[in-house]
Amino acid sequence: MRQAHAILTFQTDGQGLLDVTPDIHSWLRACDIQMGTVTLFCQHTSASLLINENAAPAVRRDILRWLDMAAPEGDYYEHDSEGSDDMPAHIKSMLTGNSLTVPFADGKMLLGTWQGVYLAEHRADAHRRYVVCHAMGD
Predict the structure, then answer these.
(1) Is residue 117 within 8 Å of residue 100, measured between CB atoms?
(2) How much is the pTM?
(3) For position 128, what pLDDT does the model report?
(4) DSSP per-residue codes, 36-73
């Protein structure tokens, strides 16, 4: 049994879904662990991780639109210390989750044909985001 870990840094351009699949695959190949599981953890309360469609851009737009409807900006919230998108971002992060566990082999996550791993930025402004990666296997 071998293990490896790293913290990958991503720069976002504001609200959106950033495909981080290639970065995770690059890191997994460098780990030189043939087969196992990788756990991914987003170290933020206003960004999150998700696996979803990686072919049709309309899916990503629809996800973002749905999240905006589920947690709209407005005078609904007490917490707004970092702006009107602060509390909605926390709710969106809660809905989409902050960690994933994915099996991998030969330096690639065993995702389905149309799946990709996305860092979801829920804030309007650009941010630097950190994702902890932990691979374990043989």
Answers:
(1) yes
(2) 0.96
(3) 98
(4) EEEEEEE--SSEEEEEEESS-HHHHHHHHHHHHHHS--
Of residues 74, 85, 1, 73, the one with CA closest to residue 37:
1
> 73, 79, 72, 4: which is closest to 34 by C-alpha?
4
Sequence-distant (6+) residues with CB within 8 A of 22 are none
Query: Taking the CB of residue 7, how many other CB atoms lie within 10 A of it?
Result: 10
**Torsion of Cα atoms, 106 then 7 then 56 then 52, to 10°:** 80
Cβ distance 36 to 136 under 8 Å?
yes
Q: With contact defined as beta carbons under 8 Å apart, do 91 and 66 qualify?
A: no
Tens digit of each residue's pLDDT (9 = 90 or more) over 24-52? 999 999 999 999 999 999 999 999 999 99
All domains of the chain in start order, with CATH:
2-137 (2.60.120.460)
**What pLDDT digit, counting tens, does each position of 62-74 carry?**
999 999 999 999 9
